[in-house]
Amino acid sequence: MARRKSLTSQLYRIARDSANVRAARGGPASYGKRMVRRKVYAKSNGLTGRLLRRLLK
Question: Can you give the pTM of this predicted structure?
Answer without folding.
Answer: 0.66
